[in-house]
Specification:
Helix content is 68%, strand content 8%. It has 11 helices and 5 strands. The chain has a 5-stranded mixed beta sheet, with helices on both faces. Helix 4 packs parallel to helix 6 and helix 5 runs antiparallel to helix 6. The longest helix is centred in the middle third of the chain and has 54 residues, at 147-200. The chain is rod-shaped, with a radius of gyration of 40 Å.
Length: 366
């Protein structure tokens, strides 16, 4: 995917460079017309200095467009070469203008966009060949250029190429620094996400911890004030868990905690919130369910856990006791949780392995 994106960006820049070439071609038209009018030139001048160069450059551009459309191989070099030919044409047809050789800088500037030293060297070679050919067939004959002028242009082209190389290297350094900074930010972001997750979850069970539980419950209660909806809290406790640790060891106890946690997480709804409240105690916040629905769901969970056998316990199972409380407008979070905790205490004192609803007759699954 990264390679595809890089190729796409390269194609986009090739397209932009071709568009710049087209702009260079068409911008010659008004300037040459203005020059012809101001100097009161005849038709021969317009044909030689305007129409013929324009047709040649349009032909070059159509050739570059054809290559861009049907052959992507070595397209960068074709675009650079096309720029060199355009510059050659402009200088050849405007040989009497002293500043015409400045067009030789065009392909050198284009080569910078590719961030490759080999392309700058290739462009420099093209420019040196172009100025040499122009000098021997045109500049020295018709434009009063001398050999010393050629010797002056060559080091200028070399210096400009060196500067272009420096610009390219500086750009590469900036890109490397930007990449390093981006990677550092991404690494820091990942670490922050991990730290945030660690601060909100229990390491053993991967459930939310009791601090996050209370934060979420506070937020739900605030939202309930704007528009009332059902909120239930269930507090669950593994029966005789101390005996499990004392008899089979803490590793067996951890296996039980993980198994119970996984069952709770997999059986509740997407909008429900499961947390390890502490030790062998868990808490669940249910939303958008009435009391009967929550009770039946908790009973199925309780029954499923009671049927699970553990190798760590030599084939024995564990049970859980559950206290359930429903939020009612006007009561505090502490009262809501205390109701669930009181119901859990009742379940423990009346035989364990059952679900008790706060402020309601004792109910058990059949």
């Amino acid at each position: 995917m990264q390679m595809d994106a890089s190729n796409q960006h390269k194609q986009d820049w090739n397209r932009k460079l071709l568009n710049a070439y087209w702009l260079l071609v068409w911008i010659q038209l008004p300037f040459q017309l203005l020059y012809a009018i101001s100097e009161q030139q005849d038709l021969t001048f317009i044909i030689n200095r305007l129409i013929i160069p324009l047709l040649i450059m349009i032909l070059i551009m159509f050739l570059l467009e054809f290559i861009n459309m049907y052959s992507k191989m070595l397209l960068d070099y074709y675009i650079i070469s096309g720029g060199a030919v355009l510059a050659f044409t402009l200088i050849y047809c405007n040989h009497d203008l002293k500043l015409a050789p400045l067009y030789l800088f065009l392909p050198i500037l284009v080569s910078i966009f590719y961030f490759q030293l080999s392309k700058i060297i290739y462009t420099l070679a093209l420019s040196l060949v172009s100025i040499s050919i122009l000098y021997w067939i045109k500049l020295s004959v018709f434009s009063d250029y001398h050999a010393i002028d050629l010797l002056t242009v060559i080091p200028v082209l070399i210096v400009v190429s060196i500067i272009a190389s420096g610009i390219m290297k500086r750009g590469a350094e900036i890109l490397d620094n930007l990449k390093a900074t981006t990677e550092l930010k991404q690494e820091l972001m990942i670490k922050n996400i991990i730290m945030d997750k660690l601060s909100k979850t229990d390491a053993l069970t991967d459930l939310y911890n009791h601090i996050t539980f209370h934060e979420y419950l506070d937020e739900l209660i605030q939202q309930n004030e704007a528009g009332q909806f059902c909120i239930h809290i269930a507090v669950l406790d593994i029966d005789n868990f101390k005996k499990v640790n004392d008899t089979y060891g803490h590793r067996a106890g951890d296996a039980v905690l993980k198994s119970v946690s996984s069952t709770l997480k997999n059986r509740v709804g997407l909008n429900d919130f499961v947390a390890r409240y502490g030790g062998e105690e868990f808490a669940i916040i249910f939303t958008e369910k009435d009391t009967d629905e929550v009770f039946e769901l908790l009973e199925r969970i309780r029954w499923q856990i009671s049927q699970m056998k553990y190798e760590e316990l030599h084939g024995q199972s564990v049970t859980i006791s559950i206290g359930l409380s429903e939020y009612r407008p006007g009561i505090s979070k502490e009262s809501l949780f205390a109701g669930a905790d009181q119901s859990l205490y009742t379940a423990k004192k009346t035989g364990k392995n059952k679900t008790v609803i706060h402020n309601a007759p004792l109910k058990e699954a059949k």
